[in-house]
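Journal club side-thread
Mid-discussion, someone asked how the predicted structure for our own chain would compare to the paper's figures. Pasting it here so we can look after the session.
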Amino acid sequence: MDRVAKIASQKAVVIFSKSSCCMCHAIKRLFYEQGVSPLVHEIDEDSRGKDIEWALTKLGCSPAVPAVFIGGKLVGSANTVMTLQLNGSLKKMLKDAGALWL
């Protein structure tokens, strides 16, 4: 879990992902289209990816990816992020974390 926290705090927006996951791709695209440049950590390309996946599950991510952190705090998975996008809350969170300036 320390490794997840360390990675999650490296940038305003961090997405834990798997390169073969279509929902992960959709979430990454959502951020890119808003002008956000997240740190994307592909856990299937990390030698300790299984440990990270386990830690994300312990934090409450189900499924483990995509797991989105904004401002170092776990926001949630695709469903949560999409809900925040639809109700307008995501943009404010991104601004507050310094990921968006507009």
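Post-session note: The chain has a mean pLDDT of 95.
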